[in-house]
UniProtKB/TrEMBL annotation:
<dbReference type="GO" id="GO:0003700">
    <property type="term" value="F:DNA-binding transcription factor activity"/>
</dbReference>
<dbReference type="Pfam" id="PF13377">
    <property type="entry name" value="Peripla_BP_3"/>
</dbReference>
<dbReference type="Pfam" id="PF00356">
    <property type="entry name" value="LacI"/>
</dbReference>
<dbReference type="InterPro" id="IPR046335">
    <property type="entry name" value="LacI/GalR-like_sensor"/>
</dbReference>
<keyword id="KW-0238">DNA-binding</keyword>
<keyword id="KW-0804">Transcription</keyword>
<dbReference type="GO" id="GO:0000976">
    <property type="term" value="F:transcription cis-regulatory region binding"/>
</dbReference>
<protein>
    <submittedName>
        <fullName>Transcriptional regulator, LacI family</fullName>
    </submittedName>
</protein>
<feature type="domain" description="HTH cro/C1-type">
    <location>
        <begin position="2"/>
        <end position="39"/>
    </location>
</feature>
<feature type="domain" description="HTH lacI-type">
    <location>
        <begin position="5"/>
        <end position="59"/>
    </location>
</feature>
<dbReference type="InterPro" id="IPR028082">
    <property type="entry name" value="Peripla_BP_I"/>
</dbReference>
<dbReference type="InterPro" id="IPR000843">
    <property type="entry name" value="HTH_LacI"/>
</dbReference>
<keyword id="KW-0805">Transcription regulation</keyword>
<dbReference type="InterPro" id="IPR010982">
    <property type="entry name" value="Lambda_DNA-bd_dom_sf"/>
</dbReference>
<dbReference type="InterPro" id="IPR001387">
    <property type="entry name" value="Cro/C1-type_HTH"/>
</dbReference>
Length: 335
């Protein structure tokens, strides 16, 4: 007896994406009638069937949700999890937490386990390696098995599910324009997450605010030694007057190098970072930062998921929800 054909194999035979096959099988208006017909004919020919356990979930619930976190040592995700746990408890739900450690293979393993049908829905922030390799079949499989999915924070992916995050692009554009309005002309950006969707959006926001391309100064690397070298150049050779840091690592790198090179913050250099409020306030000088409200992201992510599980959201159109950020001024941007 032949093994059941998978969604990925159907897509390969049709020379289309897994997303296209999934949407066609779910009668998405985004897919042309001709393509939908081709997909359904081939699926019927190969006796394709979705996961039967997942189908049964439509009429029975476990009272449990799965949460995939890419990096628990990142205080942002730790605080998102706090929000998830608090709201899930109020909703009478149990939470099973998985950590992908930014690895594609681990994320794939977790997704495969979750398709077995023991959770009612899944919250996921996509791993760094998944984004870099652009391998998303395991996520499309979750959707194909009719498991409600909500993406949080790392949401720059064409997956037809509910999403919640901040406006990464606007947050850095706003910060750049604020510095410009105070007379700062030479503004740089440091990042160790330039290869991730959120990192790219933050760089775009900074770039949008620049008056011309010659004003673009960047230190970008996910490797500490390389990031250090490039950041050193921004501070010592380019002598930027202010620097925007897109993440915790780049923020700490800027502070360390400023200290080593006797650059006084905020007298010689203004700094704005993306980091936890507790860390920002206890450094000397305290760091101005973009408040992302991670606990609120976690709480509202659960609300979106519960509404999908309970079919409270009319229609099939995914919801994209944006949490407004706030620029918190501390000592590093004193004028």
């Amino acid at each position: 007896m032949k093994n059941k054909i998978t969604l990925k194999e159907l897509a390969k035979l049709l020379n289309v994406s897994v997303s296209t096959v999934s949407k066609a099988l779910h009668d998405s208006a985004e897919i042309s009638p001709k393509t939908a017909e081709r997909v359904k004919e081939l699926a019927k020919l190969h006796n394709y069937r979705p996961n039967p356990v997942a189908v049964n979930l439509k009429s029975s619930k476990s009272g449990t949700i799965g949460v995939i976190i890419p990096n628990i040592s990142n205080t942002f995700f730790a605080n998102v999890l706090l929000g998830i746990e608090a709201r899930a408890q109020k909703s009478g739900l149990q939470v099973i937490t998985y950590i992908s450690n930014e690895k594609l293979e681990r994320e794939q393993q977790i997704a495969e386990m979750l398709t077995s049908g023991f959770v009612d829905g899944v919250l996921i922030a996509i791993s760094e390696e998944t984004q870099r390799k652009k391998e998303y079949d395991h996520l499309f499989n979750l959707v194909d098995y009719d498991i409600p999915v909500v993406l949080y924070d790392r949401i720059n992916l064409d997956l037809q599910v509910d999403k919640i995050g901040i406006d990464d692009e606007y947050s850095l554009e706003e910060a750049t324009r604020m510095l410009q309005a105070r007379g700062i002309k030479k503004i740089g950006i440091a990042t160790s997450i330039h290869h991730l969707g959120v990192g790219k959006l933050r760089i775009t926001g900074y770039r949008n605010a620049l008056k011309n391309e010659n004003d673009f100064y960047i230190a970008n690397s996910s490797k500490p030694d390389s990031l250090r070298e490039k950041t050193q150049k921004l501070l010592v050779e380019d002598k930027v007057e202010a620097i925007l840091c897109t993440d915790f690592v780049s923020t700490m790198m800027v502070y360390r190098l400023a200290y080593e090179n006797k650059i006084i913050i905020p007298k010689d250099l203004k700094v704005i970072g993306f980091l936890n409020a507790d860390v920002a306030r206890f450094l000397t000088p305290s760091i101005s930062y973009v408040e992302q409200f991670p606990e609120e992201i976690g709480e509202q992510a659960v609300d979106l998921l519960v509404n999908r599980i309970e079919n409270r959201i009319g229609g099939k159109q995914p919801i994209n929800k944006t949490i407004n950020t706030k620029l918190i001024h501390l000592e590093s941007t004193d004028f």
